[in-house]
């Protein structure tokens, strides 16, 4: 998912305080004459002739004004495009700089009074590092996602708390129409997720840049930039699974489409209760749990939709159709009939919300796309940067239900279960188990 695109304007979700200007009703004077406002003071970063500069470097830093213009060229005279930070604190190149390359930056700062200062700095970038943090972004260009799709970035090794603010500042999201949100870190620092207070509006266009190449992270550096643009679907789909009734209710635009009998995880391998998001979909895949606790089987399944890194899926389980709606027999998956599984694949999107309730265990944060498994207040509390206090969810209307036929059942067969990430699926972040139970 390291996709390069032409440079464009990016926005980072950072709380910016108001610019306060001190002053009175009259300007200062000396001998009765008004004094001209001084030009802004400009401290250049990187400094002149700096060496081994990270290829992630930003340019600028004005102490009493804003950076308003930057031109950056390499040692062959080629220019590098980029964009200003919204608060005018620095200028961000639109791509990672090259290793072991010399650059010249001309930087202009402007004061509140309109005075300008322009200076030039030269620097040389670092060698390619021996140690890199493996990063992965689970958001792809050209895709259509459900309204609850978070943007998720994983890190191996995890990001220490003291480095998370610097990393988060390099995670840039732009939405059309605008829907500001924030990033949130599970305690282990193995992934970070972005969402707004409310689900995305239908048809929203989302562009993301995880500008991590060469970014210092503890004793290492980010391994690459990740860029993607995708669209949110034109309808909202959500699934609600109740262990008490052994039924799945399928809603589209808050209207009940169908109820489907299910068989969840048995007592020794229970399904997780919580708010999950469909992570990926497979027409056919193989669960191989040999050598895993409560595993030891290999089974091919159809119409599988991943819910967790740990290996919980919704999938067709013809062997348990007799138990669906009555008894839990799986190794943690949501088993449905072959007919129901095929129908669900035609209705759902990656990014749709799946809520499971009433099971013996709760979903762990970070075990999948878990951005909606906590309240907005709790989610925002785990941002490494300040979140505007007025960024809150809007009141949500209560869903309306209408009668719909239940799914069918069929004779039972051999036991079903969950399995590891299929060979062609994106790698699970180091935060989670790649094999479920």
Automatic annotation (TrEMBL):
Keywords attached to this entry: Acyltransferase, Cell shape, Cell wall biogenesis/degradation, Peptidoglycan synthesis, Transferase
Pathway annotation: Cell wall biogenesis; peptidoglycan biosynthesis
Pfam families documented for this protein: Big_10, YkuD
Annotated catalytic residues: 315 (proton donor/acceptor), 333 (nucleophile)
Cross-referenced InterPro entries: Big_10, LD-transpeptidase, LD_TPept_cat_dom, Transpep_catalytic_dom
Region (Disordered): 28-49, 387-437
Domain L,D-TPase catalytic: 237-357
Alphabetical list of Gene3D superfamilies matching this protein: 2.60.40.3710, 2.60.40.3780, L,D-transpeptidase catalytic domain-like
Membrane-traversing stretches: none
Record field: compositional bias (Low complexity): 403-413, 420-437
Protein name stated in the entry: Ig-like domain-containing protein
Organism of derivation: Micromonospora zhanjiangensis
């Amino acid at each position: 998912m390291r996709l390069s695109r032409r440079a464009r304007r990016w926005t980072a979700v950072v709380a910016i305080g108001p610019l306060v200007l001190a002053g009175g009703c009259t300007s200062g004077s000396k001998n009765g004459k008004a004094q001209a406002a001084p030009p802004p003071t400009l401290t250049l970063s990187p400094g002149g002739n700096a060496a081994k500069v990270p290829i992630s470097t930003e340019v600028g830093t004005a102490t009493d004004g804003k950076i308003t213009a930057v031109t950056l060229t390499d040692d062959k005279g080629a220019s590098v495009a980029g964009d200003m930070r919204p608060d005018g604190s620095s200028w961000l190149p639109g791509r990672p700089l090259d290793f072991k390359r010399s650059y010249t930056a001309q930087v202009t700062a402007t004061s509140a009074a309109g005075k300008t200062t322009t200076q030039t700095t030269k620097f040389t970038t670092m060698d390619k590092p021996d140690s890199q943090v493996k990063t992965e972004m689970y958001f792809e260009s050209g895709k259509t996602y459900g309204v609850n799709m978070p943007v998720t970035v994983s890190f191996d090794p995890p990001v220490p708390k003291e480095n998370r603010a610097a990393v988060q500042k390099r995670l840039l999201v732009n939405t059309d129409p605008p829907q500001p949100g924030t990033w949130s870190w599970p305690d282990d620092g193995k992934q970070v997720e972005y969402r707004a207070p409310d689900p995305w509006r239908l048809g929203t266009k989302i562009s993301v840049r995880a500008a991590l190449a060469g970014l210092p992270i503890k004793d290492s550096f980010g391994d690459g930039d990740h860029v993607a643009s995708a669209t949110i679907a034109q309808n909202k789909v959500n699934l609600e699974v109740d262990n008490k009734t052994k039924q799945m209710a399928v809603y589209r635009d808050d209207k009940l489409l169908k109820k489907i009998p299910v068989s969840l995880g048995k007592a020794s391998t229970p399904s997780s209760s919580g708010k999950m998001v469909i992570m990926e979909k497979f027409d056919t895949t193989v669960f191989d749990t040999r050598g895993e606790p409560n595993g030891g089987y290999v089974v091919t399944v159809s119409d599988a939709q991943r819910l967790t890194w740990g290996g919980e899926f919704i999938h067709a389980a013809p062997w348990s159709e007799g138990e669906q709606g009555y008894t839990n027999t799986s190794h943690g998956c949501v088993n449905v009939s072959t007919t129901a599984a095929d129908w669900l694949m035609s209705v759902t999107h990656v990014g749709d919300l799946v809520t499971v309730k009433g099971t013996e265990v709760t979903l762990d944060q970070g075990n999948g796309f878990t951005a909606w498994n906590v309240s907005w207040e709790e989610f925002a509390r785990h941002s490494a940067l300040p979140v505007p206090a007025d960024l809150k969810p809007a009141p949500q209307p209560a869903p309306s239900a209408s009668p719909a036929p239940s799914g069918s059942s069929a004779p039972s067969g051999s036991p079903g279960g969950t399995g590891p990430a299929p060979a062609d699926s994106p790698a699970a972040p180091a935060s989670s188990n790649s094999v479920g139970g």
